[in-house]
TrEMBL record:
Pfam families: MutS_V (PF00488). It comes from Pedobacter psychroterrae. Keywords: ATP-binding, DNA-binding, Nucleotide-binding. The keyword Nucleotide-binding applies. This is DNA mismatch repair protein. Residues 243-424 form the DNA mismatch repair proteins mutS family domain.
Length: 430
């Protein structure tokens, strides 16, 4: 089963690169093959929502990490095989090959060499010690032991073949047993991804989260940080059946959005069975993750920012109404309307979220006055990111604390930047 999410969440978490910055996918991508890159991307676009599937994938990656397994194939060899299999059209037996004699010989030779290396890896490599890959290993070994492929292992790897032999193997690989060759490549891509992510975990000291059943309701992150920051400040936050909603406050530039991305990125990646940027993490498997951090105006339908927010909340209501266990995050809920409506809307929607006890919610807001009404709900927790004043200069600690802050330093920042003086002087000059 796959975790439910959407393009808004993928964009919010910056999972994939944009013109101005790399994405989380690029951080984890240490693959050697094109097929591995594509498989890794599909994993990022389709996290898991099945407890055993998450546990299994994490255990396999962790095992490769402990063994410090190296990818046993050269990148250029896989490139040659991929080009040979992907560029060619299917052949009908007896027809002239659609590749040149030289290209055919190179492709056939690459497949033969790959099969020899793969068999050795299956028989003598680290795969023998990886729990969870027994079925895949046995299946691929069975493919290699097919009678039709017996001649392959009678050949010497890297040996020069005659034209007749090369042509015969070409028909074998690209027509008769094409699906078997593709299956072998798919297995190699999977191993590529697992070893790649294991290496990333070791390089950055990421940890493997501990998944728990959905009904447990636990969501406990210690020392979580954003993996793309050079000097991140780690924070900790726990949610459970007694605290299903977190109301987050803090001044502009205090680090709310960064913390929200750090927390939700870790939860998203954890559902892939991947290691995360944290000291420790335990989480109940969810049915879906939806974030709203940078919600654009929907000009295509003539929707204002506020109406886009309303539609987003409505979508969450529909998802929650089906009884699913969902993580929902809103950064600055109802920022697109006036303070009075934002206050009332924030209170009412957050209260409604608090009734959904099987889901988890984080709502950040500048409407700190809403906390006085929300504190009546026992399962709403309050956290803030503080600002310390050094004279007239605000200093941001980026360290999460319990409680509510009424820090407002917008005008201080405006004055410090000399905007009012610039406007006055400009008026005089005019």
């Amino acid at each position: 089963m796959l975790l439910q999410t959407d393009s808004q969440t993928i964009e919010d978490l910056r999972l994939f690169s944009r013109q101005d910055q790399k994405g989380i996918y690029e951080l984890y991508n240490n693959t050697f093959t094109r097929g591995g890159e594509e498989l890794l991307e599909s994993m990022f676009r389709g996290p898991l929502s099945d407890l055993e599937a998450i546990r299994s994938r994490a255990a396999i990656i962790g095992a490769f990490g402990k063994l410090k397994t190296r990818f046993p194939f050269e990148g250029w060899l896989l490139d040659n095989v991929e080009k040979y299999m992907l560029q060619a059209k299917e052949l009908n037996e007896g027809k002239k090959p659609d590749l040149s004699e030289k290209e055919t010989a190179a492709g056939v030779g690459a497949v033969i060499e790959l099969f020899h290396l793969l068999r050795e890896f299956l028989e003598k490599g680290d795969l023998k010690n990886i729990t969870g890959l027994e079925n895949e290993r046995a299946e691929v070994m069975s493919v290699l032991n097919e009678v039709s492929l017996t001649p392959v292992f009678k050949e010497q790897a890297k040996a020069k073949l005659s034209y007749a032999a090369s042509t015969a193997y070409d028909v074998l690989f690209r027509v008769r047993e094409k699906e078997k060759v593709i299956r072998v490549l798919q297995f190699i891509y999977l191993i590529d991804v697992y070893i790649s992510v294991a290496n990333v975990a070791g390089k950055y000291n990421f940890v493997f989260p501990v998944p728990q059943p959905k009904h447990s309701g636990v969501l406990d992150l210690e020392g979580v940080y954003h993996p793309e920051l050079k000097n991140p400040v780690a924070n900790s936050l726990s949610m459970n059946a007694d605290k299903t909603v977190v109301f987050l406050t803090g001044a502009n530039m205090a680090g709310k959005s960064t913390f929200l991305r750090s927390f939700s990125t870790a939860l998203y990646v954890a559902h892939m069975g991947f290691p995360v940027a944290a000291k420790r993490m335990e989480f109940a498997v969810m049915d879906g993750i939806y974030t709203t951090i940078n919600l654009p105006d929907n000009l295509g339908i003539g929707a204002s920012h506020f109406y886009a927010e309303v539609l987003r909340v409505k979508k969450m209501a529909i998802e929650l109404g089906s009884g699913k266990s969902i993580f929902v995050l809103f950064d600055e809920l109802f920022r697109g309307t006036n303070v009075k409506d934002a206050h009332e809307g924030t209170v009412e929607v957050t209260r409604a979220f608090a009734e959904m006890k099987t889901s988890r919610f984080i709502i950040s807001s500048h409407i700190v006055e809403a906390a006085a009404e929300l504190c009546k709900k026992e399962n709403i927790g309050f956290h803030y990111l503080p600002t310390v004043m050094n004279g007239a200069m605000p200093v941001y600690t980026y360290t999460l604390k319990e409680g509510v802050t009424d820090d407002r330093h917008g005008m201080i920042i405006i004055r410090n930047e000399g905007i009012l003086e610039t406007l006055k002087n400009g008026n005089k000059n005019g």
